[in-house]
Amino acid sequence: MPSYQSLSVTAQHLNITESVLMDMKRFDWISTVEKNGTTFLSMHQEYKVRFILHLRTQFHLTDEEIARVMTAQEAPYSLQKVSEVLGRELTA
Questions:
Q1: pTM (predicted TM-score)
Q2: Which of the chain's termini has less CB crowding within 10 Å, N or C?
Q3: Res 51: pLDDT
Q4: Shortest CA distance to 22 belongs to which of 59, 62, 49?
């Protein structure tokens, strides 16, 4: 069974806001679990968040580009495959 953390703990751990995580959920890039009014994120989903943040901060991908990548890939994620999905090389 995967381990889970509350959204607030995950956000603090990743130095982002909970609203950033909720935006990712709205885009269907990640999934959460709710129990007793608290929203949780699995460690696998945190891995996806880290990958998305890397695409956003290091390679300045747009939400549309990230959506294409997340639709086309499954874990383990590969930057080489990102280039293939987007049809261009990634530049930092």
A1: 0.90
A2: N
A3: 96
A4: 49
Instruction: Give percent above pLDDT 90 in the chain.
Output: 79
**Joined tokens for residue 10:** 């995950």
Q: What digits encode the pLDDT tens for the residues 12-37?
A: 999 999 999 999 999 999 999 999 99
Spell out the domains of the chain, with CATH numbers in brackets: 4-86 (1.10.1660)
HSE-CB for 48 with a 13 A CA cutoff: 22
Alpha carbon 68 to its chain centroid, in Å, reads 13
Residue-wise burial string across 37-71, b where 16 or more C-beta atoms lie within 10 A, e elsewhere? eebbbbeebbebbebbbebbeebebeeebbebbbe
The three-class DSSP label of residue 38 is: strand
Q: Answer whether residue 2 shows pLDDT above 70.
A: no
